[in-house]
Amino acid sequence: MDALTRTKNMKKNYIFTVRSKQQGGDMKEAVREILKHIGEDPAREGLAKTPERVEKAWEYMMSGYGQKLDEVINGAVFEAPGDEMVIVRDIEIYSMCEHHLLPFFGKCHIGYIPNGQVLGVSKLARIADMYARRLQIQERLSHEIASAVMDAIEPRGVAVIIEARHLCMMMRGVEKQNSEMRTSAMLGVFRHRPETRAEFMSLVSR
Ligand SMILES: [Zn+2]
């Protein structure tokens, strides 16, 4: 069998054996396929339970798909006077790059200027987790977090900065171990007023 036919057959097999969860499919079978593909023996002792562990890990890491903003916030919106900037910095972020299915991880800083309402303290971190636990690119993750805070409490503005390192850059490709990617999303006054943005930047920079 030539390489092309083999590839075609593999593709055919893949389509027939791996179905989505909704179709009654099973990630374990897909993991066994990957193990076979890299030349491993899925039946050997050390790997026997690997498909099960991988499935559990992925279900957890991708649990953000099953969450909705209002459930995450769960009523933790409070009336508050004043328009002082609220900042939570150094929220740990663990996400998965959608191009390589490899992790990227780092810190997220979120700031907003209230317009009569504030969020419960833990909720910014929970919102960040909800979007991080999906397949992502860092730019979109920043924007989704900012938009969610905007939708939740309609503040005068929201600022999000994410600084993250990508295993797809560190382990493969350009193999740059020390480069950190920085993305930001600025909404409302953070977008329109340079001095507000500058204040946020100075408060989150170390
Ligand atoms: Zn990547």
Q: What does this 3D model show about the protein?
A:
A hairpin with a 5-residue loop joins strand 2 (86-97) and strand 3 (103-113). The chain is elongated. It has helices at 3-17, 27-37, 50-61, 69-73, 123-132, 138-153, 167-170, 189-192, 194-204, and strands at 77-79, 86-97, 103-113, 117-119, 135-136, 157-166, 181-188. The longest helix has 16 residues, at 138-153. The protein is of the alpha+beta class. The strands form two sheets. A five-stranded mixed beta sheet has the order 5-2-3-6-7. Bound molecules: zinc ion. Zinc ion is lined by residues 97, 99-100, 102, 166, 168. Residues 97, 99-100, 102, 166, 168 line the site of zinc ion.
Rg from alpha-carbon coordinates: 21 Å
Please give the CATH architecture of the largest domain.
2-Layer Sandwich
The CATH superfamily of the largest domain bears the name GTP cyclohydrolase I, C-terminal domain/NADPH-dependent 7-cyano-7-deazaguanine reductase, N-terminal domain
Instruction: Estimate what percentage of residues fall within beta strands.
Output: 15-25%
Average pLDDT rating: 91
> What fraction, in percent, of the residue positions are helical?
40-55%
**Order of strands across the widest beta sheet?**
5-2-3-6-7
* Overall morphology: elongated
Tally of discrete structural domains: 2
